[in-house]
Each structure stands twice: as structure tokens, then as C-alpha cells.
Design a protein that fits this description.
280 residues, alpha/beta, two-stranded antiparallel sheet, 17% strand
């Protein structure tokens, strides 16, 4: 890994671990993702005070973080693509595109991001969507290499739309490992991966990645269960998490961040993390 890439990654990772709080959900164009994000300036105040390692944002949000004067504020991870697979109805045309096709990472350089993130969707019967994602990653990888920008790839294996209504995560370990392997071989510096249905299988994802793996949070769930499964995934070799709704849609995001940071950086187990949350 080149020094320029490593220098940016060092902003995200503390002793090899990272909690990245994702608030880039607006570009999914899915209304159910937005409760808790109505007042982004207030969200930023809360998250900066909570002190996660990083915050994942879009170009149009990033000023709320990067204009802040604090030297110890979280690192910026910038989402640079968008698509329509998250909506609760299957569209006639499924797509994913870079927000700036000509210069895909120029906004991240302008905002001094520590990394950029791009999707790798694998949806049933949607080969064109998959092809678009491969093209996006290939285009971004070239610019990331040129400018020393770490590339986080987000491999997403989803169930058919008619299984639960809206594309939902497929936790099949075989499928996740295969797509993570592709992300790694396309040149990912970091991989944001879905948890496997059985947490004890997640070591296979780590082995396939060969780069730091951060667990994707997905939809909001019972927090105690989230903390227990997060601890199990850390035990399998994950180096942190990228969680959004499980943080910003809770009544006390600061306490959730404290619990997750204890899992990542202090080796807390699920029960200890739950106690930390309740003290918050």
C-alpha cells in the first residue's frame, strides 16, 4: 500500500479498528431511511460529540463535517455513487451511477476525505446493474490509484424483491464470500461487507477480502441483539463496522456509538457493550 493511501486510512483506523457512522442514506431515495436525518446540522453536532472514527456522507453533506474547526473530529468517508435498488418496489430499469462520471473522486479530494465508497450490487436477474457497478469501480479505482485515495467497496448480495418486499440482504455466506472476493480482486483497500446469517461463518469473508473488513449494519434492529452479533463478528476478524440506522434512528445515538467503540477498540463483549449503552 502506498504511503499516500495509508496516510488517509490512518485517519479512519485507530489501532486497526474503525467505527464509520453512515448518514449518506438520502442518495438511496428511500423515505424509510430518512427518519432521524431531518436536521443534518443537528445530527452532525451529535455525532461529532460522540466521536466515532469516521462519518460516511455525500458531497452535499460533507461541508457540515469539514467546516468544523475541531482537529479531532471524525474522518470523512465519502459516498460517490447512487442507485435505485433500495426502494420497496422493483423498478423497470435498475441502475447505479457515479455522481460525477468525468471526475468521480474530485469532490472527495476537495473535501479532504479519508476514503471513498462505491457499491457492488448483486441482485437476482439484474446483470446490467452488476455490469454498471463493475464499470463504476473500474473507473474509480484508476483515479484512487492516481491520487492516493483509499477505495471502500460495498458488495451487496440481495434477495429477490418478492421475498420480503423491497430488496433485502441475502446473508448466504457462499454468495457473500464470492462477491467479497471479487471486490478484493478489483482493488478494494477496504471492504464493507454484509454479515453472514451465521456469525461463525464470517471468518470466511475476512479470509477472502485480504484487506480490512467493516461490517455493514443494514436496517434498524433490537440494539441488544445488534451488539451481541457485532461482538461475534469482531471475534471472527472484522475490524469494525459501518452502521447507520442502528445509530441515528436510536433515541441516544451517542450511547450507541460509545457501546460500539468499546466493542471495536476495547475488546468488550456484547453484554459489556450493552451495559455501556445503558450507562449513556
Amino acid at each position: 500500500m502506498r504511503i499516500s493511501t495509508k496516510a488517509r486510512m490512518n485517519r479512519m483506523f485507530t489501532n486497526g479498528g474503525c467505527l464509520d457512522v453512515a448518514v449518506d442514506h438520502g442518495v438511496c431515495n428511500e423515505p424509510s431511511f430518512l427518519p432521524g436525518l431531518e436536521d443534518m446540522a443537528r445530527v452532525m453536532d451529535t455525532l461529532i460529540d460522540a466521536k466515532p472514527d469516521a462519518i460516511q456522507m455525500t458531497y452535499g453533506q460533507a461541508d457540515l463535517l469539514q467546516s468544523r474547526p475541531e482537529k479531532d473530529k471524525p474522518a470523512l468517508v465519502m459516498r460517490i455513487d447512487m442507485g435505485n435498488p433500495y426502494n420497496d418496489q422493483r423498478h423497470r430499469e435498475m441502475w447505479s451511477m457515479l455522481q460525477n462520471a468525468e471526475n468521480p473522486i474530485i469532490g472527495a479530494l476537495e473535501m479532504d476525505a479519508a476514503a471513498v465508497v462505491v457499491n457492488l450490487f448483486m441482485l437476482p436477474d439484474e446483470p446490467e446493474l452488476f455490469r454498471q457497478c463493475v464499470e463504476n469501480i473500474s473507473r474509480v479505482r484508476e483515479d484512487c490509484h492516481r491520487f492516493g485515495m483509499p477505495l471502500m467497496i460495498e458488495p451487496l448480495v440481495m434477495l429477490p424483491n418478492d421475498v420480503r418486499g423491497g430488496y433485502q440482504v441475502d446473508g448466504d455466506a457462499e454468495k457473500i464470500v464470492t462477491l467479497v472476493r471479487l471486490a478484493s480482486e478489483m482493488g478494494a483497500d477496504i471492504i464493507k461487507a454484509d454479515p453472514t446469517d451465521n456469525a461463525e461463518d464470517f471468518h470466511r469473508v475476512i479470509e477472502a477480502a485480504r484487506v480490512p473488513v467493516l461490517v455493514r449494519g443494514g436496517g434498524k434492529a433490537d440494539l441488544k441483539t445488534v451488539l451481541e452479533k457485532s461482538a461475534a463478528l469482531m471475534a471472527q476478524g472484522a475490524q469494525g463496522m459501518v452502521y447507520g440506522r442502528n445509530i441515528y434512528q436510536h433515541d441516544n445515538p451517542r450511547a450507541v456509538v460509545a457501546a460500539l467503540m468499546a466493542l471495536i477498540h476495547d475488546g468488550a463483549d456484547g453484554a459489556e457493550a450493552w451495559e455501556i449503552y445503558n450507562r449513556g
